[in-house]
Design brief:
Length: about 575
């Protein structure tokens, strides 16, 4: 049975509805000619027209996560895009991001993130102003229902602005589609955007609805709730010192505690790490907000994200349709822990797999395997990947250009058919890898063709553990280490066998030691490959440090991204961010 929700249906039919409305208006309205747009007075005829318009910007928001993922993970220490037998060099554009050498001319996906966010803001502004002109009673809305629709678009607009603040800091203030005098062409101070996001979200708390009961978001998946607005405030306040130089950890802790206490509705940590990413995650009470996905719309199952986190021929191992379509690829892998002599690196950052292996029994460290009936185990992909071929014989996944059997390692080098206990020596670097280089991973499941859950996972944007970890960090910064440890353990214990808890949980509930370095490592484990690693490194003062195949930055200007040439050319009132040439 294919999973379908009302919101998903809206996403699918919005474009059709707009085109249909345009056709009908040109045929039936003899007083005006609208060739490339639908007049507001013609479009809003039914209650569903209003709903469709409200949620149209959400599909754009869902699409836009791809650019955000690239610029926030590729510039950080956990994920890499290495050259593999000639694949994935692309004139060094991935190394530019890895080495923090991006500038006005070069920076993968940076322009797309700026443009995507402002397109989303423009769509939200258009709908927000339209809604202000409508009489809710005409369409059968109660005042509360109509206010909720307004709150949806305002909260989504705040989400776009939070991303721009995070990544560019100095951005224009654009809040109207109809009245350009309310907007600025030039950038405003980060404080202006910070306070706008803060005030919008606080007002939205009174407009949006709380979650009613346990059992997941179900048909409200894809709609902002009170909890989602509060979750954005947690993100805003946690990083306030980075954004505007103000410590707002107390405010962060207040909203995080409110979410944990159920002030905005009941949520609960799932009993397994992958429940929030699974095919039926609209039933998971850990998910605060997710963009609805399905076979027709699944932007996180895309090239820039989770389809390309596995070997090119992984479909033979997973028995999914990408084996036939060639949709998998090797863009993403975990940053290596071992050099090419088989010795552990000594970096404090990166060494992704080694950080997971620090605590024994981690369920995520099982090699990914489809178990049938839309179930899986493990997150990482490594070693020899065997499957039964069409003749009934056991075979192994091979490289896509040179036909060597893969044996995927926690290292980057040219291994080819080298036995697992041998090492090639030489440099370990971005431009010197093969298809054995670096553990791959499956965050969102890649189920086999026969499973109803294939490609059905919703994209989880906010989940309860983020609120718990945010509160724990605030506690730790206050010196309340034991309280922070218990909060983290309330999530972490699901990742390890109960027999291991005394060893792997943080003191006083276990023997593990919690400090700020360990807090950053734990953010990296729990939120691995979720598109947030860059800001965590910045908040902990580590973004400019050295890690695998990256030297320390000479200064800190790369903590915010440059405005790309095309962006500057489109608006001569924009000024380049500090540290970059025009």
């Amino acid at each position: 049975m294919q999973k379908t929700t009302k919101v998903m249906k809206l996403y699918r039919y919005i474009t059709v509805a707009v085109l249909t409305a345009a056709l009908f208006s040109s045929c039936t309205n003899l007083d005006e000619t609208l060739y490339d747009q639908v007049g507001t007075q013609n479009y809003y005829n039914t209650k569903m027209d209003v709903v469709r318009a409200t949620f149209r910007p959400f599909e754009h928001g869902y699409w836009s996560i791809q650019n955000r993922f690239v610029i926030n993970e590729l510039t950080a220490d956990q994920l890499v895009t290495v050259t593999r037998d000639g694949w994935w060099d692309d004139s060094g554009k991935w190394r530019i991001m890895h080495d923090h050498l991006y500038n006005v001319e070069n920076g993968q996906n940076i322009e797309g993130e700026w443009t995507g966010c402002y397109q989303g803001i423009g769509q939200c502004n258009y709908v927000i102003e339209d809604l202000e002109t409508l009489d809710p009673s005409r369409f059968g809305f109660s005042e509360a229902e109509f206010n909720n629709l307004k709150g949806q678009c305002r909260a989504l607009r705040a989400w776009f602005y939070l991303r721009l603040l995070d990544e560019f800091r100095n951005v224009p203030y654009v809040v109207s589609f109809n009245d350009q005098s309310l907007n600025t062409k030039n950038q405003v101070e980060p404080k202006v955007i910070f306070e706008f996001v803060e005030s919008e979200l606080k007002e939205c708390l009174d407009l949006l609805t709380p979650k009613a009961s346990l059992g997941g978001n179900l048909l409200t998946q894809g709609q902002f709730s009170q909890a989602a607005a509060a979750a954005m405030l947690v993100r805003l306040y946690l990083n306030a010192e980075v954004y505007v130089g103000e410590k707002r950890y107390t405010d962060c802790a207040t909203y995080a505690q409110n979410l944990i206490d159920g002030k905005y509705g009941p949520y609960a940590v799932a009993d397994r790490w992958d429940a929030a990413f699974d095919w039926n995650n609209e039933t998971c009470d850990e998910v605060i907000f997710g963009f609805p996905g399905g076979k027709n719309t699944h932007w996180h199952y895309s090239g820039d994200m989770y389809w390309w986190t596995v070997p090119a021929r992984f479909g033979y191992y997973a028995n999914d349709r990408k084996a036939k379509e060639g949709g998998h690829n090797t863009k993403w892998a975990a940053s290596p822990s071992y050099d090419n002599d088989g010795k552990l690196f000594t970096y404090d950052l990166g060494m992704t797999v080694q950080k997971f292996r620090k605590y024994p029994g981690d369920e995520r460290m099982k090699c990914y395997k489809n178990l049938g009936n839309s179930k899986r185990e493990g997150m990482f992909v490594y070693g020899r990947l065997e499957y039964v071929d069409e003749s009934g014989k056991t075979a192994a996944v091979v490289g896509p250009t040179i036909a060597y059997d893969l044996y995927i390692r926690d290292a980057v080098g040219v291994f080819h058919d080298m036995p697992a206990d041998q090492w090639p020596g030489g440099d370990s670097k971005m431009e010197n890898g093969d298809h054995n280089s670096g553990y791959h991973f499956v965050k969102y499941p890649l189920y086999q063709d026969s499973d109803e859950g294939q490609d059905q996972s919703d994209y989880t944007e906010f989940r309860l553990p983020e609120m718990i970890y945010s509160l724990a960090e605030c506690k730790l910064r206050e010196g309340k280490t034991d309280e922070a440890a218990k909060l983290l353990n309330s999530v972490r214990k699901r990742n390890y066998p109960q027999a291991n808890w005394s060893e792997v949980l943080y003191a006083p509930e276990g023997k593990a030691t919690l400090d700020m370095n360990e807090m950053l490592d734990e953010w990296g484990r729990e939120f691995f490959a979720e598109g947030r690693r860059r800001i965590d490194l910045i908040r902990f003062g580590k973004f400019h440090n050295a890690w695998w195949d990256k030297t320390a930055d000479p200064d800190n200007h790369t903590a915010i991204f440059p405005l790309m040439r095309s962006v500057l050319d489109a608006n001569n009132e924009l000024k380049q961010n500090p540290g970059y040439n025009d």
